[in-house]
Amino acid sequence: MKRKHAHHRNHPPEPRAYHDSTFGCDAVKIMPSEYYVTSREMVIVTVLGSCISACIRDPVSGIGGMNHFMLPGKDGDDITSASARYGGYAMEILINQIQKLGGRRSNLEAKLFGGAVALPGLATRSVGEMNAEFALRYPMPRTFRCLRTICWASTHARSIFFRRADASWCGC
């Protein structure tokens, strides 16, 4: 059976693709409001501050991906919430794209990262705190296994490297 080698993101597919010598494989870097889904053995990379990234994969089909959203969300009737910069839309588009490429919702595993307090002292609740609350409350399907949740109260940005094949990650 021929293995599916597909990927998608909401911008042209390869401008930030490169070979990562640390991991010894191809990699792609996603920016805020983007997502990337693949069945290839590769690393998906992003840098997070107050934003959140969900790394979701189907270990049976080998399809997985990452999103990077900036804000928790807006009212579902608001047309601006139909953007990957908002958590609800970013989560749904990532899950739907994994399913579109052959992943099964019942097999999905997730890891959540982010929520730093990027500008401490400017508000009672920071965007990072609101993002982390949203991610932790997001209604994952009952069959999802949330393998790890890393939401930190740091004031520093961190790089996240996600290998979809084995769901390993490295944050630095």
From TrEMBL:
GO MF terms held by the record: protein-glutamine glutaminase activity
Enzyme Commission number, as recorded: 3.5.1.44
Top-level enzyme category: hydrolase
GO biological process, one term: chemotaxis
Record's keyword annotation contains Heme: no
Function: Probably deamidates glutamine residues to glutamate on methyl-accepting chemotaxis receptors (MCPs), playing an important role in chemotaxis.
Family: Belongs to the CheD family.
Name assigned to this protein: Probable chemoreceptor glutamine deamidase CheD
Organism per entry: Propionivibrio dicarboxylicus
Source species taxonomy: Bacteria, Pseudomonadati, Pseudomonadota, Betaproteobacteria, Rhodocyclales
